[in-house]
Amino acid sequence: MSSGTKYIFVTGGVTSSLGKGIISASLGKLLQARGFTVTIQKFDPYINIDPGTLNPYEHGECYVTDDGAETDLDLGHYERFLNVRTSQANNVTTGRIYNNVITKERKGEYLGKTVQVVPHITDEIKRNMFLLGETGQYDFIITEIGGSVGDIESLPFVEAVRQVRWDLGSNNALVIHLTLIPYLSAAKELKTKPTQHSVKELLSYGIQPDILVCRTEHPLSMEIRKKLALFCNVNLNSVIEAIDADTIYDVPLLMKKEKLDERVLAKLKMTTKHEPDLVQWKIFLGKLKNPLNEVTIGLVGKYVSLPDAYKSIAEAFIHAGSQNDCKVNLKWISSEDIHKDTVETIIGSLDAVLVAPGFGERGLEGKIEAIKYVREHKTPFLGICLGMQCAVVEFARNVLHLDASTTELNPKTKHPVIDMMEEQKKITNKGGTMRLGSYDCKIKKGSKAHHIYGDTLIHERHRHRYEFNNKYLEQIEEAGLKGTGVNPESGLIEIVELKDHPWFVGVQFHPELKSTVLSPHPLFVKFVAAAMEYKGK
Ligand code: GLN
Fold it and tell me: Residue 3: what pLDDT?
């Protein structure tokens, strides 16, 4: 491990969904804003090798990194807050750990020994915990442990944390425990007991948390703080209140007010470089909270009852809205509700429509119907991945009058304008085998995409098996849907845009994955601007 790197572990207790990812990202932001280099990694206790094969209803969006890793959506928060790229090394699951250990065992690398959870699994976890630290690039590695303390699955990770803390000593590693302080409205009281129990549980695994971060709906009184400090053996100033916030982007400021970063630095014996420089962050927040305009944008998708399934898209709109001084109201629309008779009522009053990514779905016809409407009514449209593919199918059907489809929906279609990529046809395993990660895209000069990006070479992240079928390119372009972004090596069409429409863009990649607070994505920024213009007409 790198000698100078400090390790911060974030565990969770009482319940899941307390926002460990946001607390980790907020602490990371504060340390970074003090001039330190920081990265955040997440260890997930489930057995899938990665979340790529998980239904978004199970675990929310699958976040893809530049290096093509399919990862937990918390990595999206890390990137959005820190504006620093993550990679496969930032997300490790139980499945990956066991896979590595079992592969080694098959190679005979354990020299006849019995392979056990301790030390073999825990050693592999520790090896992965140190991977990013060993690069020597970071002052701090924040490691979020998924799940809650007490879950059977997370035990080996908790044991690894105990060992790392022992190995490195308390000047080099610390543990933050995030818990819930529930409010009983009948008694009008905040309750500390669940937190006491959770810390006891952590203690039973040999871990004394250094800092408690307490999620709460009401401010923590001094009395409550003292009680928590006393029963959980933490310093009074290490009981940190994490009160519910209007937006996740408030949390770094709330954590600064509670001095979370100062406590971390003091405990790790780090001298602070300077106070956190949060000027840009505050400008973003100021604009976010004081919008001058408002637009309503429809997000047409399949998993709309679970907004986490489109986390990065929703966040990209927040970044782009702030940039435009505009509040973006997202209207979540289930594609299955859209058909000929309902499209006008559902789409008619919107200022713009985004058709979301997705896989092999029933609601595809609804997406196509929505696109027909926005194409004809000149409503701003952004299609992402499947959304772009639907735009091509819609155009082929309703402008070229072809009996067209994507082979994902209809393998026997007469005109497969969207077809499986050649190299995908031989693949049988589902996990990690799509076209994944960052690829170059050359943009045609003078196109709308060129105007949006202000560049002719861009790099965007992908996650798909199907593509625009180039056999139809000439015919489709002639009729007005232009391929304006192309992968220079494979010739795959990455961007389509409609002539004679104020703003109709489809992209095969996922721009939402690269939008951050300090660097909102140009496609979203310009799309929101187009919605404002459309509304003003
Ligand atoms: N299902 C489509 C494909 O695999 C689109 C994927 C997506 O929207 N991410 O190509």
Answer: 61
Which position among 326, 385, 390, 441 bears the catalytic label? 385
Nearest to 187 by CA among 218, 226, 222: 218
Quote the pLDDT of residue 2. Answer: 42
Whether 383 contacts 493, CB under 8 Å? no
Q: Say if CB 121 and CB 98 are below 8 A apart.
A: yes
pLDDT the model gives residue 431? 83
Residue among 427, 464, 494 to mutate when testing ligand 1 (max atoms within 8 A of CB): 464
Closest C-alpha to ligand 1, atom 1? 359
Active-site residue flag, 62: no
What are the beta bridge partners of residue 352?
297
- Polymer length of the chain: 537
Which of 228, 249, 230 has its CA nearest to residue 239?
A: 228
Going 56 to 59 to 65 to 67, the CA torsion angle's sign is: negative
Question: Over the stretch 46-58, which tens digit does the pLDDT of each residue have?
Answer: 999 998 888 887 7
- Check if 510 is active-site: yes
Determine contact, residues 314/307, Cβ cutoff 8 Å: yes
The ranges of the chain with pLDDT < 50 are 1-2
Residue 463 alpha carbon, nearest atom of ligand 1 = 9
Phi, psi for 404 (deg, rounded to 5) = -110, 160
Residues 415-419: contacts with CB under 8 Å, at least 24 apart: 415/472, 416/469, 417/392, 417/393, 417/468, 417/469, 417/472, 417/476, 418/389, 418/392, 418/393, 418/466, 418/467, 418/468, 418/469, 419/466, 419/467, 419/469
Q: Report whether residue 483 contacts ligand 1, using a CB cutoff of 6 Å.
A: no
Query: What element of type H or E holds 366?
Result: helix 364-377
Tell me if 466 CB under 6 Å of ligand 1.
yes
**For the purposes of burial, counting CB atoms within 10 Å of the CB of 240, is it exposed (0-12), middle (13-18) or buried (19 or more)?**
buried
Question: At which residue do the structure tokens 């592999």 appear?
Answer: 124
**CA–CA separation, 374 and 353 (whole Å):** 7
CA-nearest of 388, 248, 245, 384 to 315 is 248
**Nearest residue by C-alpha to atom 5 in ligand 1:** 386
Strand 91-93 to strand 457-464: parallel, antiparallel, or no bridges (unpaired)?
unpaired
- Residue 426 is predicted with a pLDDT of 85
Do the Cβ atoms of 502 and 527 come closer than 8 Å? no
**385 is known as an active-site residue:** yes
Here the tokens at position 194 are 């669940």
Report pLDDT for 362. Answer: 78
Beta carbon of 386 within 6 Å of any ligand 1 atom: yes
Q: Provide the token pair at 75.
A: 């990595």
Ligand 1 atom having least distance to the Cα of 418: 10
DSSP-based three-state secondary structure for 415: strand
